[in-house]
Amino acid sequence: MANIYDYAYDLEKALRNSEEFTALKDAYDKVMSDESSKQMFEDFRQTQMTLQQKQMQGEEISEEEVEKAQSVVQLVQQHPDISKLMEEEQRLNTVINDVSQIITKPLEDLYGTPEQGEQ
Fold it and tell me: For residue 100, which phi and psi values (nearest 5 degrees)?
């Protein structure tokens, strides 16, 4: 029987060769090839990471930070190349989530799901 890690590497290779990953990579490359798109996307990612970090550390996010984040999101959503990149990222995330559900099925089967009446 093959090593489980071999299957994982096969899955990684399949993911890299998937239509979803290829489309994401193409969209990413297009954004990165234009300096203004690249800067706008990097600002968006930095804003996103900063807010996530604060949230994870239990720090309060100011109203000003929320407004800035909202304006950055609106700006990138209006940019066709960045909007396309975000759509492709969502498509790939859906595939990854589906695969994750398949992979964790043995644990779900083992532990089961509680009956509706039990809580």
Answer: -60, -40
